[in-house]
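Quick start: read one record
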Amino acid sequence: MSRYWSSLVHRLTPYVPGEQPKLARLVKLNTNENPYPPSPRVVEAISEELRNGGELLRLYPDPAADRLKEAVAARFADFGITAQQVFVGNGSDEVLAHVFMALLKHELPILFPDITYSFYPVYCGLHDVAYATVPLDENFAIRIDDYVAPNGGIIFPNPNAPTGCLLPLPAIASLLARHRQSVVIVDEAYVDFGGESAMALVSEHPNLLVVRTLSKAHSLAGLRVGYAVGQCALIEALDRVKNSFNSYPLDRLAIAGAVAAISDQAYLEATRQAVMRSREALCSDLRGLGFEVLPSAANFVFARHRLHDAGELAAALRQRGVIVRHFKLPRIDQHLRITIGTDAQGELLAEALREILA
Protein backbone atom coordinates (compact mmCIF):
# COMPACT_ATOMS: atom_id res chain seq x y z
CA MET A 1 0.00 0.00 0.00
CA SER A 2 1.02 3.59 -0.53
CA ARG A 3 -0.35 6.95 0.50
CA TYR A 4 -0.19 7.87 -3.18
CA TRP A 5 -2.88 5.35 -4.10
CA SER A 6 -6.33 6.63 -4.92
CA SER A 7 -9.21 5.45 -2.76
CA LEU A 8 -10.38 3.30 -5.69
CA VAL A 9 -7.15 1.30 -5.72
CA HIS A 10 -7.50 0.57 -2.02
CA ARG A 11 -10.97 -0.91 -2.65
CA LEU A 12 -10.04 -3.13 -5.59
CA THR A 13 -9.76 -6.92 -5.40
CA PRO A 14 -8.00 -7.76 -8.68
CA TYR A 15 -8.71 -10.77 -10.84
CA VAL A 16 -6.25 -13.64 -10.45
CA PRO A 17 -5.45 -15.19 -13.84
CA GLY A 18 -4.57 -18.83 -14.30
CA GLU A 19 -0.95 -19.68 -13.63
CA GLN A 20 1.46 -19.44 -16.54
CA PRO A 21 4.31 -21.60 -15.20
CA LYS A 22 7.85 -21.15 -16.46
CA LEU A 23 8.73 -24.82 -16.06
CA ALA A 24 9.18 -26.94 -19.17
CA ARG A 25 7.62 -30.32 -19.92
CA LEU A 26 4.43 -29.68 -17.98
CA VAL A 27 1.03 -30.99 -19.00
CA LYS A 28 -0.64 -27.58 -18.79
CA LEU A 29 -4.40 -28.01 -18.43
CA ASN A 30 -5.26 -24.98 -16.28
CA THR A 31 -6.04 -21.97 -18.51
CA ASN A 32 -8.28 -23.32 -21.30
CA GLU A 33 -5.81 -22.67 -24.08
CA ASN A 34 -6.36 -24.56 -27.31
CA PRO A 35 -3.93 -27.47 -27.65
CA TYR A 36 -3.53 -26.84 -31.40
CA PRO A 37 -1.70 -24.00 -33.14
CA PRO A 38 -3.68 -21.34 -35.01
CA SER A 39 -4.47 -21.59 -38.70
CA PRO A 40 -1.35 -21.44 -40.91
CA ARG A 41 -2.99 -18.45 -42.56
CA VAL A 42 -2.43 -16.47 -39.36
CA VAL A 43 1.35 -16.82 -39.55
CA GLU A 44 1.28 -15.98 -43.26
CA ALA A 45 -0.78 -12.85 -42.67
CA ILE A 46 1.46 -11.63 -39.86
CA SER A 47 4.56 -12.33 -41.95
CA GLU A 48 3.07 -10.32 -44.79
CA GLU A 49 2.42 -7.43 -42.40
CA LEU A 50 6.12 -7.54 -41.45
CA ARG A 51 7.40 -7.37 -45.02
CA ASN A 52 10.07 -4.81 -45.98
CA GLY A 53 11.68 -5.01 -42.58
CA GLY A 54 8.47 -4.15 -40.75
CA GLU A 55 8.09 -0.81 -42.52
CA LEU A 56 4.38 -0.69 -41.70
CA LEU A 57 5.04 -0.88 -37.96
CA ARG A 58 6.08 2.77 -37.90
CA LEU A 59 2.49 3.68 -38.78
CA TYR A 60 -0.49 3.56 -36.45
CA PRO A 61 -2.98 0.77 -37.14
CA ASP A 62 -6.51 1.45 -38.32
CA PRO A 63 -8.22 2.75 -35.15
CA ALA A 64 -11.54 1.24 -36.26
CA ALA A 65 -10.01 -2.10 -37.40
CA ASP A 66 -12.48 -2.08 -40.28
CA ARG A 67 -10.94 -5.16 -41.93
CA LEU A 68 -11.59 -7.17 -38.81
CA LYS A 69 -15.13 -5.87 -38.40
CA GLU A 70 -15.86 -6.83 -42.00
CA ALA A 71 -14.41 -10.30 -41.42
CA VAL A 72 -16.62 -10.81 -38.36
CA ALA A 73 -19.66 -9.58 -40.27
CA ALA A 74 -18.89 -11.95 -43.15
CA ARG A 75 -18.55 -14.83 -40.69
CA PHE A 76 -22.07 -14.18 -39.37
CA ALA A 77 -23.66 -12.90 -42.56
CA ASP A 78 -26.31 -15.65 -42.36
CA PHE A 79 -27.66 -13.83 -39.30
CA GLY A 80 -27.75 -10.48 -41.06
CA ILE A 81 -24.78 -9.06 -39.12
CA THR A 82 -23.11 -5.99 -40.64
CA ALA A 83 -19.73 -4.42 -39.91
CA GLN A 84 -21.51 -1.52 -38.21
CA GLN A 85 -22.79 -3.98 -35.60
CA VAL A 86 -19.28 -5.12 -34.58
CA PHE A 87 -17.01 -3.74 -31.87
CA VAL A 88 -13.43 -5.01 -31.45
CA GLY A 89 -10.93 -4.82 -28.62
CA ASN A 90 -7.73 -6.10 -27.11
CA GLY A 91 -9.11 -9.47 -26.04
CA SER A 92 -12.66 -10.05 -24.87
CA ASP A 93 -11.59 -8.96 -21.38
CA GLU A 94 -11.04 -5.42 -22.64
CA VAL A 95 -14.30 -5.58 -24.56
CA LEU A 96 -16.07 -6.63 -21.36
CA ALA A 97 -14.39 -3.83 -19.39
CA HIS A 98 -15.88 -1.33 -21.85
CA VAL A 99 -19.24 -3.11 -21.64
CA PHE A 100 -19.39 -2.63 -17.88
CA MET A 101 -18.69 1.09 -18.23
CA ALA A 102 -20.83 1.76 -21.31
CA LEU A 103 -23.85 -0.48 -20.78
CA LEU A 104 -24.02 -1.79 -17.21
CA LYS A 105 -23.39 1.25 -15.00
CA HIS A 106 -26.91 2.14 -13.86
CA GLU A 107 -28.75 2.78 -10.59
CA LEU A 108 -30.13 -0.75 -10.38
CA PRO A 109 -27.73 -3.64 -9.74
CA ILE A 110 -26.77 -5.95 -12.56
CA LEU A 111 -27.33 -9.70 -12.26
CA PHE A 112 -25.00 -12.61 -12.96
CA PRO A 113 -24.66 -16.20 -11.69
CA ASP A 114 -23.11 -16.89 -8.31
CA ILE A 115 -20.69 -19.29 -10.01
CA THR A 116 -19.34 -17.68 -13.15
CA TYR A 117 -16.40 -15.85 -14.71
CA SER A 118 -14.66 -14.29 -11.72
CA PHE A 119 -13.72 -11.14 -13.64
CA TYR A 120 -17.33 -9.88 -13.46
CA PRO A 121 -17.23 -8.76 -9.81
CA VAL A 122 -13.77 -7.28 -10.47
CA TYR A 123 -15.18 -5.08 -13.23
CA CYS A 124 -17.99 -4.07 -10.90
CA GLY A 125 -15.44 -2.93 -8.35
CA LEU A 126 -13.37 -1.07 -10.94
CA HIS A 127 -16.34 0.75 -12.49
CA ASP A 128 -18.45 1.09 -9.33
CA VAL A 129 -21.26 -1.07 -10.70
CA ALA A 130 -23.72 -2.50 -8.19
CA TYR A 131 -24.46 -6.20 -8.63
CA ALA A 132 -26.35 -9.15 -7.21
CA THR A 133 -25.62 -12.80 -7.86
CA VAL A 134 -28.25 -15.38 -8.80
CA PRO A 135 -27.55 -18.94 -7.59
CA LEU A 136 -27.17 -21.70 -10.13
CA ASP A 137 -29.44 -24.67 -9.49
CA GLU A 138 -28.31 -27.90 -7.84
CA ASN A 139 -26.96 -29.12 -11.21
CA PHE A 140 -24.99 -25.88 -11.71
CA ALA A 141 -27.36 -24.72 -14.45
CA ILE A 142 -28.70 -21.20 -15.03
CA ARG A 143 -32.46 -20.95 -14.44
CA ILE A 144 -33.89 -17.95 -16.26
CA ASP A 145 -36.93 -18.02 -13.96
CA ASP A 146 -34.61 -16.90 -11.17
CA TYR A 147 -33.75 -13.69 -13.04
CA VAL A 148 -36.85 -11.78 -12.03
CA ALA A 149 -35.50 -8.86 -9.98
CA PRO A 150 -35.43 -5.37 -11.50
CA ASN A 151 -31.92 -4.87 -12.78
CA GLY A 152 -29.50 -2.67 -14.64
CA GLY A 153 -28.46 -5.53 -16.93
CA ILE A 154 -27.72 -9.25 -17.02
CA ILE A 155 -24.45 -10.91 -17.97
CA PHE A 156 -23.39 -14.56 -18.11
CA PRO A 157 -21.01 -16.77 -20.08
CA ASN A 158 -22.59 -19.38 -22.34
CA PRO A 159 -21.42 -22.04 -21.85
CA ASN A 160 -20.85 -20.92 -18.29
CA ALA A 161 -17.40 -20.82 -16.75
CA PRO A 162 -16.03 -22.67 -14.88
CA THR A 163 -18.84 -25.24 -15.09
CA GLY A 164 -19.08 -25.66 -18.88
CA CYS A 165 -22.89 -25.91 -18.70
CA LEU A 166 -24.87 -24.55 -21.64
CA LEU A 167 -28.03 -22.43 -21.64
CA PRO A 168 -30.09 -23.34 -24.74
CA LEU A 169 -30.86 -20.65 -27.29
CA PRO A 170 -34.65 -20.64 -26.67
CA ALA A 171 -33.98 -19.90 -22.99
CA ILE A 172 -31.80 -16.93 -23.95
CA ALA A 173 -34.53 -15.66 -26.28
CA SER A 174 -37.03 -15.93 -23.43
CA LEU A 175 -34.70 -14.06 -21.08
CA LEU A 176 -34.30 -11.26 -23.63
CA ALA A 177 -38.06 -10.96 -24.04
CA ARG A 178 -38.62 -10.82 -20.28
CA HIS A 179 -36.05 -8.06 -19.78
CA ARG A 180 -36.63 -5.70 -22.70
CA GLN A 181 -35.66 -2.71 -20.52
CA SER A 182 -32.25 -4.21 -19.67
CA VAL A 183 -29.24 -5.08 -21.75
CA VAL A 184 -28.35 -8.78 -21.74
CA ILE A 185 -24.68 -9.68 -22.34
CA VAL A 186 -23.96 -13.22 -23.52
CA ASP A 187 -20.25 -14.00 -23.15
CA GLU A 188 -19.49 -16.70 -25.72
CA ALA A 189 -15.81 -17.39 -25.11
CA TYR A 190 -16.37 -21.16 -25.39
CA VAL A 191 -19.47 -21.50 -27.55
CA ASP A 192 -17.67 -23.02 -30.56
CA PHE A 193 -17.02 -26.20 -28.57
CA GLY A 194 -20.61 -27.37 -28.47
CA GLY A 195 -23.04 -24.49 -28.12
CA GLU A 196 -25.36 -22.54 -30.39
CA SER A 197 -24.47 -18.87 -30.72
CA ALA A 198 -26.89 -16.15 -29.64
CA MET A 199 -25.71 -14.26 -32.72
CA ALA A 200 -28.89 -15.60 -34.33
CA LEU A 201 -30.93 -13.41 -31.97
CA VAL A 202 -29.16 -10.08 -32.50
CA SER A 203 -31.40 -8.78 -35.28
CA GLU A 204 -34.54 -9.40 -33.20
CA HIS A 205 -33.37 -8.05 -29.85
CA PRO A 206 -31.98 -4.51 -29.46
CA ASN A 207 -31.03 -5.36 -25.85
CA LEU A 208 -28.65 -8.21 -26.77
CA LEU A 209 -24.87 -7.95 -26.97
CA VAL A 210 -22.82 -11.06 -27.81
CA VAL A 211 -19.16 -11.01 -26.76
CA ARG A 212 -16.62 -13.40 -28.26
CA THR A 213 -12.88 -14.04 -28.27
CA LEU A 214 -10.30 -15.52 -30.63
CA SER A 215 -8.31 -16.90 -27.68
CA LYS A 216 -10.04 -20.26 -27.43
CA ALA A 217 -11.44 -21.85 -30.59
CA HIS A 218 -9.11 -19.88 -32.88
CA SER A 219 -6.00 -20.67 -30.77
CA LEU A 220 -4.99 -17.01 -30.49
CA ALA A 221 -4.75 -16.45 -26.73
CA GLY A 222 -1.33 -14.87 -27.33
CA LEU A 223 -2.61 -12.33 -29.86
CA ARG A 224 -5.36 -10.74 -27.67
CA VAL A 225 -8.37 -10.14 -29.91
CA GLY A 226 -12.01 -10.01 -28.88
CA TYR A 227 -15.19 -8.56 -30.30
CA ALA A 228 -18.82 -7.83 -29.55
CA VAL A 229 -21.85 -7.89 -31.82
CA GLY A 230 -25.12 -6.08 -31.22
CA GLN A 231 -27.44 -3.55 -32.71
CA CYS A 232 -25.85 -0.22 -33.64
CA ALA A 233 -26.95 1.75 -30.56
CA LEU A 234 -25.05 -0.64 -28.28
CA ILE A 235 -21.97 -0.54 -30.50
CA GLU A 236 -22.02 3.26 -30.51
CA ALA A 237 -21.92 3.26 -26.70
CA LEU A 238 -18.90 0.96 -26.72
CA ASP A 239 -17.14 3.11 -29.35
CA ARG A 240 -17.69 6.22 -27.26
CA VAL A 241 -16.02 4.59 -24.26
CA LYS A 242 -13.22 3.03 -26.30
CA ASN A 243 -12.38 6.34 -27.99
CA SER A 244 -12.27 8.00 -24.59
CA PHE A 245 -9.78 5.37 -23.40
CA ASN A 246 -7.60 4.05 -26.23
CA SER A 247 -8.14 4.88 -29.90
CA TYR A 248 -5.80 2.10 -31.09
CA PRO A 249 -6.60 -1.04 -29.06
CA LEU A 250 -5.53 -3.52 -31.76
CA ASP A 251 -2.13 -3.41 -33.40
CA ARG A 252 -1.45 -4.22 -37.05
CA LEU A 253 -0.30 -7.76 -36.38
CA ALA A 254 -3.35 -8.57 -34.27
CA ILE A 255 -5.72 -7.25 -36.92
CA ALA A 256 -3.99 -9.18 -39.70
CA GLY A 257 -3.83 -12.41 -37.73
CA ALA A 258 -7.42 -12.18 -36.54
CA VAL A 259 -8.77 -11.58 -40.05
CA ALA A 260 -6.84 -14.62 -41.29
CA ALA A 261 -8.09 -16.80 -38.45
CA ILE A 262 -11.73 -15.86 -38.93
CA SER A 263 -11.50 -16.45 -42.68
CA ASP A 264 -10.26 -20.04 -42.25
CA GLN A 265 -13.47 -21.72 -41.15
CA ALA A 266 -12.31 -25.13 -42.39
CA TYR A 267 -9.38 -25.07 -39.97
CA LEU A 268 -11.62 -23.92 -37.12
CA GLU A 269 -14.02 -26.77 -37.79
CA ALA A 270 -11.24 -29.36 -37.85
CA THR A 271 -9.63 -28.25 -34.59
CA ARG A 272 -12.85 -27.72 -32.66
CA GLN A 273 -14.04 -31.20 -33.65
CA ALA A 274 -10.71 -32.61 -32.46
CA VAL A 275 -11.11 -30.85 -29.10
CA MET A 276 -14.67 -32.15 -28.70
CA ARG A 277 -13.58 -35.72 -29.46
CA SER A 278 -10.80 -35.42 -26.88
CA ARG A 279 -13.30 -34.02 -24.39
CA GLU A 280 -15.52 -37.06 -24.73
CA ALA A 281 -12.56 -39.39 -24.30
CA LEU A 282 -11.41 -37.53 -21.19
CA CYS A 283 -14.91 -37.55 -19.70
CA SER A 284 -15.05 -41.32 -20.20
CA ASP A 285 -11.67 -41.78 -18.51
CA LEU A 286 -12.63 -39.56 -15.59
CA ARG A 287 -15.95 -41.31 -15.00
CA GLY A 288 -14.14 -44.64 -15.12
CA LEU A 289 -11.92 -43.36 -12.29
CA GLY A 290 -14.92 -42.48 -10.13
CA PHE A 291 -15.28 -38.78 -11.01
CA GLU A 292 -18.57 -36.99 -11.44
CA VAL A 293 -18.27 -34.85 -14.57
CA LEU A 294 -20.69 -32.08 -15.50
CA PRO A 295 -21.97 -32.03 -19.10
CA SER A 296 -19.63 -29.63 -20.90
CA ALA A 297 -20.04 -27.57 -24.07
CA ALA A 298 -16.63 -25.93 -23.56
CA ASN A 299 -12.98 -26.86 -24.05
CA PHE A 300 -12.76 -27.89 -20.40
CA VAL A 301 -14.58 -30.16 -17.99
CA PHE A 302 -15.64 -29.60 -14.40
CA ALA A 303 -15.28 -32.70 -12.25
CA ARG A 304 -15.14 -33.92 -8.68
CA HIS A 305 -14.28 -37.15 -6.92
CA ARG A 306 -16.48 -37.96 -3.91
CA LEU A 307 -13.71 -39.78 -2.08
CA HIS A 308 -10.82 -37.35 -2.63
CA ASP A 309 -10.34 -33.69 -1.80
CA ALA A 310 -10.01 -31.56 -4.95
CA GLY A 311 -7.21 -29.41 -3.56
CA GLU A 312 -5.19 -32.47 -2.62
CA LEU A 313 -5.77 -33.99 -6.05
CA ALA A 314 -4.60 -30.78 -7.76
CA ALA A 315 -1.46 -30.72 -5.61
CA ALA A 316 -0.73 -34.39 -6.29
CA LEU A 317 -1.17 -33.87 -10.02
CA ARG A 318 1.20 -30.93 -9.93
CA GLN A 319 3.85 -33.09 -8.30
CA ARG A 320 3.52 -35.35 -11.34
CA GLY A 321 3.86 -32.49 -13.83
CA VAL A 322 0.15 -31.99 -14.57
CA ILE A 323 -1.48 -28.62 -13.79
CA VAL A 324 -5.26 -28.18 -13.51
CA ARG A 325 -7.36 -25.35 -12.01
CA HIS A 326 -8.78 -25.53 -8.49
CA PHE A 327 -11.05 -22.74 -7.22
CA LYS A 328 -11.23 -22.31 -3.43
CA LEU A 329 -14.74 -20.91 -3.62
CA PRO A 330 -18.07 -21.83 -2.02
CA ARG A 331 -19.99 -24.65 -3.73
CA ILE A 332 -17.14 -25.54 -6.10
CA ASP A 333 -14.13 -26.07 -3.85
CA GLN A 334 -14.36 -29.84 -4.43
CA HIS A 335 -14.26 -29.52 -8.21
CA LEU A 336 -11.39 -29.36 -10.65
CA ARG A 337 -11.57 -27.51 -13.94
CA ILE A 338 -9.54 -29.43 -16.50
CA THR A 339 -8.68 -27.97 -19.89
CA ILE A 340 -9.03 -30.29 -22.86
CA GLY A 341 -5.57 -30.94 -24.26
CA THR A 342 -4.41 -33.34 -26.92
CA ASP A 343 -5.29 -37.01 -26.61
CA ALA A 344 -1.72 -37.64 -25.43
CA GLN A 345 -2.07 -35.03 -22.69
CA GLY A 346 -5.40 -36.53 -21.65
CA GLU A 347 -3.78 -39.93 -21.35
CA LEU A 348 -0.98 -38.51 -19.20
CA LEU A 349 -3.57 -36.91 -16.94
CA ALA A 350 -5.53 -40.14 -16.63
CA GLU A 351 -2.36 -42.09 -15.93
CA ALA A 352 -1.37 -39.64 -13.17
CA LEU A 353 -4.85 -39.86 -11.63
CA ARG A 354 -4.77 -43.66 -11.65
CA GLU A 355 -1.50 -43.54 -9.76
CA ILE A 356 -2.85 -41.00 -7.24
CA LEU A 357 -6.16 -42.77 -6.67
CA ALA A 358 -4.47 -46.13 -6.24
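The longest helix spans residues 265-288.
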